[in-house]
Structures are given as structure tokens and as C-alpha cells.
Amino acid sequence: MIKQILHKSFSAFLALLVVFSTVSFTVEKHYCGDVLIDASVFSEVEKCGMEAIEKLQKKSCCKDELDFVKGQDELKFSSFEDLNFEQQQFTLAFAKTYLNGFESLPKQIIPHKDYSPPNLVADIQVLDQVFLI
To answer: Which residues cross the membrane (predicted)?
Structure first.
């Protein structure tokens, strides 16, 4: 039981690791002076409201910063032909013995499967008072 739980949790962890290592996203930040006003990953950042004043002035105190987190682009896809001869031999032998280990047993024929015993009207041994000792 504990082995199955560990196996499933480890498999889920590895699947999530592959998914999150290949995902790319952008972190958007808005600074007003040196103060961070808002940071966002999936939506647009909220501005500080200084845009109207910035239009009147030439100098801008606000700045937007984009941090792009790039995921892994190249995944290694290897084929059976990339293995050397000994590795191919071992892989084929392992697969053959593993798959043959799960062959089902021959179906057992039960000749009296549909036979129903006769109905007992009375227990003869009790009626005749004959018992095995």
C-alpha cells in the first residue's frame, strides 16, 4: 500500500517537474520612483495614476519592467536506433521477459459447474440416529 502511494506521488512529481520546466512566462512590474507598485504574472499591472502628470511633464518618474522567464525549449528525444548494440539487446531481452511474465493461466474447465445437488427433504442420518464416531 505504501509502495503504491510513493510510486504515484513520485510519478506525479516528475510529471509536474517536466511541465513546469518547459513553461515560459513573463513577470510584469510597475515602479513609481524606486517603489514597486504592482507585479503581475498573468494579467496587466495596475498603474500608479501618475500618467496624467507625466504627460504634462517631460520627465517620467514611473517605469515598467518586464522579466521574461524562459522555460526549457529543447527536450531530448532519443530513439531505439540511438542505442548501441548491447543496449538494444538488453532492452529487447528485458521487454520480452517482462511481457511474458504476465501471461494468463489457461482457462480451467469445471465439469460440474452447472450441476445443482438434489434437494434434501430430511437429514437421513439424524432420522435414523446413525452417526460416524
So the answer is: none
CA distances from 51 to 34, 35, 72, 91 (A): 16, 16, 37, 65
Q: Residue 96: which H helix or E strand, with range?
A: helix 85-100
Say which residue the cell 452417526 belongs to. 131
Q: Report the pLDDT value the prediction gives residue 15, as an integer from 0 to 100.
A: 93
Beta-strand (E) ranges in 15-93? Answer: 25-32, 35-40, 62-69
Please give the average per-residue pLDDT across 119-132, as a whole number: 81
Q: Is the pLDDT confidence value at 49 over 80? A: no
What residues are paired with 69 via a beta bridge?
Answer: 25
Nearest to 65 by CA among 35, 99, 91: 35
Q: Are 28 and 59 in contact (CB under 8 A)?
A: no
